[in-house]
TrEMBL record:
Keywords: Cell membrane, Membrane, Transmembrane, Transmembrane helix. This is SURF1-like protein. PROSITE patterns: SURF1. The chain crosses the membrane at residues 230-250. Belongs to the SURF1 family. The keyword Membrane applies. Coiled coil: none annotated. Its main location: membrane. It is a multi-pass membrane protein. Signal peptide: none annotated. It is found in: Cell membrane; Membrane. It comes from the Bacteria. It comes from Comamonas guangdongensis.
Length: 258
């Protein structure tokens, strides 16, 4: 009995389970590899799109009639400029994690002459200044001096952050959700996008961008993106190939011991 081969000791059920596990692993690894290939194509398109746009001269923000057509592929990271009045009292602070550490984005609506509003990310402020900013927002008075805003168009970030949902009632914002912020602040004609204040160096309007201060740092839009998806894809495909080799070795071993 003790000298029976491994192939003889392995029951039909165990063989079936090994086959099922092997097939599942192979298909899973292949699917993950293909997903990374798709992600790589998306990332390359994003990098090319951003590189092409961020150095262009700013154009006027899209008119309300164009709002239904606005999407990431056609407009995100496009340099734009707008002229209007700050609605400081309708500002909100949204959670941010940047190269400067944790803190908040100061999101303030800009009221345009046609009565529409555009949320503007005026920059990053450290976490320790949250209470001071909330007091300043609460005490803000209506602006009387119009300003010109130059920055990059960004798409709304609905829902919230990872495992964290925006809570308008509590003033807790974990993403720049334009529709939710507009509703909570009473903005009846808000654009479906927001603007990151400031444009990168090399843009013709960079000199006109808002300067950074100790309290607020604009121009922190991430425009450099890592692209390791090919490495990930090859890793997953390599694991799928290892499953095939392992199955072949097991089969060869079973036949040799039979």
């Amino acid at each position: 009995m003790k000298n029976r081969s491994a192939a003889q000791r392995r029951s039909p059920f165990a063989k079936a389970m090994l086959i099922c596990v092997g097939i599942a692993l192979f298909l899973g690894f292949m699917a993950l590899g293909s997903w990374q290939v798709q992600r790589r194509a998306w990332k390359l398109d994003l990098i090319a799109r951003v590189e092409q746009r961020v150095h262009a001269a700013p154009v006027a923000v899209p008119a309300p009639g164009l709002w239904p057509q606005i999407d990431a592929a056609g407009y995100e990271y496009l340099p734009v400029q707008a002229h209007g009045l700050w609605l400081d009292k309708q500002s909100v602070l949204t959670k941010a994690l940047t190269e400067d550490g944790a803190g908040f984005w100061l999101m303030t609506p800009l009221q345009l002459a046609d009565g529409t509003q555009i949320l503007v990310n005026r920059g990053f402020t450290p976490e320790k200044l949250r209470a001071a900013w909330l007091q300043r927002i609460d005490a803000a008075k209506p602006a009387t001096e119009p300003v010109t805003v130059i920055g990059l168009m960004r798409m709304s970030e609905p829902g919230g952050g990872f495992l964290r949902h925006n809570d308008a009632a509590a003033g807790q914002w974990f993403s720049r959700d334009v529709a939710a912020i507009a509703q909570s602040r009473g903005l009846s004609r808000a654009a479906p996008y927001f603007i990151d204040l400031g444009v990168p160096a090399g843009n013709p309007a960079h000199a006109d961008s808002a300067p950074a201060t100790a309290e607020l740092r604009p121009g922190m839009t991430v425009i450099q993106f890592s692209n390791s998806h090919l490495v990930y894809a090859l890793t997953w495909y390599g694991l799928a190939a290892m499953v095939v080799v392992a199955a072949w070795l097991v089969r060869r071993h079973d036949r040799a011991r039979a």
